[in-house]
Design a protein that fits this description.
This protein is mainly alpha-helical. It folds into two domains: about 375 residues, no CATH class; about 35 residues, no CATH class. It contains 17 helices and six strands. β3 and β4 form a beta hairpin. The protein starts with 9 loop residues before the first helix and ends in an 18-residue tail after the last helix.
Length: about 450
């Protein structure tokens, strides 16, 4: 008896249909589990706020959930982190001191990005786990070194950095912009190899992952986001991993970094634990009395005032210093917004993700230029910004161009056969094919030479 020809066996059709239905049902079940986890945290939050009588504090900080709604989605769907939204808004629009915004930017993702990471794992989104296992410990060392090393003034409230804040902020902005610009330039090519798994972890790659992980953690200790951005640079620019895998990996790395910072600095260090008086003014931090004093180098009657430890000082303005209130009010938003961002990223193509990252990077650059006051008064900072943009972008472009030499990889075998799943084809190329563009003698459509 011979197998039927000229069509597909009904049994095979039934198997394929059943397998597809099973996959969809499994995906829905996992999505419901992830959503149920967010609702469980919400219930815990409601009970905790009610039992501790914090509803008034949540209402007073009504603006925090609005900022967190955008930041949590962006932080879990891109490598930029929600801090790229919250940090400039809090510091430049609301007048929150940079060290307070830093504490907030590390404390909120400990909840939001952790929920996003759990959603990624529950829904089995692709992650480069080995790169994560190498870079995350280095990032943790980096963030602890930044928080507990000689770079923070731990004898002052909220541990301000000894490095001038404008330079730290501008350096991070330039790194974000440079990384986004280089990836965008690479994805302007119409045909790219899709690297979905790193198979060769040589000593060079391991060293780079450790180095960039440490740098990212250190930057996170200064401004909040950082670990995710620097891991993204290694995964996407240097290794060439597709964004649909690189971004979830960077999200989980940032989540782990924030959890450590949250436990050590925010809780054990007391930098999140602001206490209020009967009038709702901040009077304690981590159990110690705090108050307002003139900032260094300014007149006694100048504003705004700075925070200092001490008894009998005027209370601090909660709109600038109640970091616990910001954090508490943001939780019910980020536990849903961050998983939503991870889901959105899973539905976007690699090229769409790159465009989104570029748009956000341009927004980050624009807001920093607009709201960073020293850029209009400090010529040295302007020169640093211009030179930094050229140097950082140039270094990243060189990394992209010579990535195989840097990693010690063999040259590309141009005779190797690529399957469809290993190629990322741009829209322009597909339009050429649909329109039936002319073909060269070697069978290559016009205008596509040299793009592989």
């Amino acid at each position: 008896m011979t197998a039927p020809t000229g069509g597909t066996s009904p049994n095979i059709d039934h198997i394929i249909t059943g397998a597809s239905a099973t996959r969809k049902a499994t995906a829905k079940r996992r999505a419901r589990i992830a959503l149920a986890l967010s609702f469980a945290v919400l219930v815990i939050w409601i009970v905790a706020v009610t039992l501790t009588g914090q509803w008034g504090r949540v209402i007073d900080n009504w603006f925090a959930p609005l900022i967190a709604a955008i930041g949590s989605v962006i932080g879990s769907s891109t490598p930029l982190g929600g801090g790229t939204v919250s940090f400039p808004v809090y510091t430049k629009v609301l007048g929150v001191p940079p060290q307070v915004a830093r504490t907030f930017s590390l404390s909120v993702p400990a909840i939001g990005m952790t929920m996003a990471s759990l959603s990624i794992m529950i829904n089995r989104r692709p992650v480069e786990w080995r790169a994560l296992a190498i870079s995350l410990p280095a990032a943790i060392v980096g963030v602890l070194f930044g928080l507990y090393g000689p770079f923070t003034q731990r004898d002052q409230p909220f541990w301000p950095s000894v490095i001038p804040s404008p330079y730290v902020r501008m350096t991070f902005t330039l790194v974000v912009f440079g990384a986004a610009a280089v990836v965008w330039l690479n994805y302007r090519q119409q045909i790219l190899e899709q690297i979905t798994r790193v198979t060769d972890y040589g000593w060079r790659l391991v060293s780079i992952l450790i180095l960039f992980g440490f740098i990212g953690g250190f930057v996170s200790s200064l401004v909040g986001p950082g670990t995710n951005v620097f891991l993204y640079i290694v995964l996407i620019i240097l290794i060439g991993l597709i964004p649909r895998i690189g971004i979830p990996t960077s999200v989980i790395a940032m989540s782990g970094t924030c959890i450590i910072a949250f436990i050590t600095m925010s809780l054990l260090g007391g930098q999140l634990l602001t206490g209020l008086d009967a009038a709702g003014q901040v009077v304690t931090l981590g159990g110690q009395a705090v108050g307002a004093v003139p900032c260094p180098g300014q007149a006694a009657d100048a504003a705004p005032l700075c925070a200092a430890y001490g008894e009998g000082l005027p209370p601090l303005n909660p709109l600038r210093y109640d970091v616990f209130g910001f954090w508490l009010a943001s939780i019910p938003v980020v536990i849903f917004g961050a998983p939503l961002g991870a889901w959105v990223a899973s539905r976007m193509t690699n090229r769409q993700l790159v465009v989104l990252v570029v748009i956000l990077a341009l927004s980050e650059l624009a807001t920093t230029i607009i709201f960073l006051e020293p850029l209009r008064t400090n010529l040295a900072l302007v020169i640093y910004t211009v030179i930094g943009m050229v140097v950082i972008t140039g270094i990243l472009l060189l990394m992209l161009k010579f990535r195989r030499q840097i990693l010690g990889l063999p040259p590309v075998d141009l005779d190797e056969t690529f399957t469809r799943t290993r190629l990322d084809v741009g829209g322009d190329f597909r339009e050429d094919l649909v329109e039936g563009s002319d073909t060269d003698r070697d069978g290559t459509p016009d205008g596509t030479e040299g793009r592989v």
